[in-house]
Write a structure and sequence with these properties.
Blueprint: H1 3-14, H2 25-29, H3 66-78, E1 83-88, E2 104-111, H4 114-118, H5 123-149, E3 154-157, H6 166-172, E4 177-178, E5 184-185, E6 193-200, H7 216-223, H8 225-229, E7 235-239, E8 245-249, H9 256-259, H10 263-266, H11 269-272, H12 275-295
Antiparallel strand pairs: 1-2, 2-6, 3-6, 4-5, 7-8
This protein binds iron/sulfur cluster (2 copies).
One iron/sulfur cluster (SF4) binds next to α10.
Length: 296
């Protein structure tokens, strides 16, 4: 089957709506933190300009060898990308009614400068936040051009949002796990990162089914600092239709994109103390609890 035909066939599947959020394909295999529309402070821009300098090839290649992937990753790190993951797009990852050409994604993270977190919420903080989005967009288009130059077809998911649910995509790509704040928490950066993606014609991306960060869900259940820290009550706890506890991120209440609020990042222990420290403490606590249970 030609790549165009294959992409078309998969696109038809991608456009289908799965209905009930609780029973969705994604929820069965990933973290429990979900919202009706999407997860995380994705600013939801829709008409982001295509900043590509190179056109898509007419006959895109679909196979990439490991050397090419290594070269791509090295180049990405050299221009500011912190971490790279790979995922296949499933319908739940797309923002409703969005269409993408290629269902395989390269997922990119970039550190949010500490300056953004330290800035007092308001125009200045918003300006810093916007420039972080712009910086990641520039890097993403640069990497997309790199792929096009090597005869792979691409489509950039602008970090400002509007096409794909970035936190969920990052989780699916094994880059981290979604915390109660709705943000992706990664070993490298905790919740302090921006995410973008490149949909690409490569069909043999090194996708890993990696759930090593799923323990974060249990940690968040005991923490809840972001819920208390949110000045707008945009992170709320509620019960699902299945009777389970769920945290909802109410995008309409969040002032992260319009005022540069970052309270949920600032108060998150993963940002304060780092992933390794938290994991260590969590493991120690669990082994103490386990040994107490055995004694009983
Ligand atoms: S703390 Fe700020 S950025 Fe985080 S969810 Fe609340 S309003 Fe949005
Ligand atoms: S503040 Fe606590 S509950 Fe919120 S995301 Fe961070 S670890 Fe999870």
């Amino acid at each position: 089957m030609k790549v165009e035909d294959k992409a078309h066939e998969q696109n038809i599947k991608l456009k289908k709506d799965n209905g009930c959020g609780c029973g969705s394909e994604l929820n069965k295999e990933t973290s429990q933190y979900r919202t009706e529309n999407e997860v995380g402070c994705d600013c939801g821009g829709t008409d982001n300009p295509d900043e590509s300098h190179i056109k898509n090839p007419k006959k895109p290649k679909i196979i990439a060898d490991q050397d090419f992937i290594n070269d791509f990753e090295n180049y990405a790190h050299s221009i500011g990308i912190k971490d790279i993951g790979y995922a296949q797009i499933i319908p739940d990852l797309l923002i409703r009614d969005k269409f993408i050409q290629y269902p395989n994604a390269i997922v990119l993270t970039m550190e949010m400068d500490k300056q953004i977190i330290e800035a007092i919420q308001g125009p200045e903080a918003q300006k810093l936040n916007d420039s972080a989005y712009k910086k990641l967009a520039d890097i993403s288009y640069n990497l997309s051009d790199y792929l096009r130059k090597h005869d792979y077809a691409t489509e950039v998911a602008h970090p400002y949002g509007g096409v794909v649910k970035f936190s969920q995509l990052g989780e699916k790509a094994g880059l981290g796990w979604i915390g109660q704040s709705g943000l992706l928490i990664s070993p490298e950066l905790g919740p302090r990162q921006k995410i973008s993606a490149i949909f690409v014609s490569i069909t043999n991306l090194p996708i890993k089914d990696d759930k090593q960060h799923s323990w974060i869900t249990d940690y968040c259940e005991k923490c809840g600092k972001c819920i208390k820290a949110c000045p707008e009550n945009a992170i709320i706890e509620k019960e699902t239709c299945c009777g389970e506890k769920e945290t909802e991120f109410v995008k309409e209440l969040c002032i992260g994109c319009i005022q540069g609020c970052t309270s949920c990042i600032e108060k998150c222990p993963f940002d304060e103390k780092g992933y390794a420290h938290i994991k260590n403490r969590f493991d120690k606590m669990n082994s103490i609890l386990k040994s107490k249970k055995i004694e009983i």
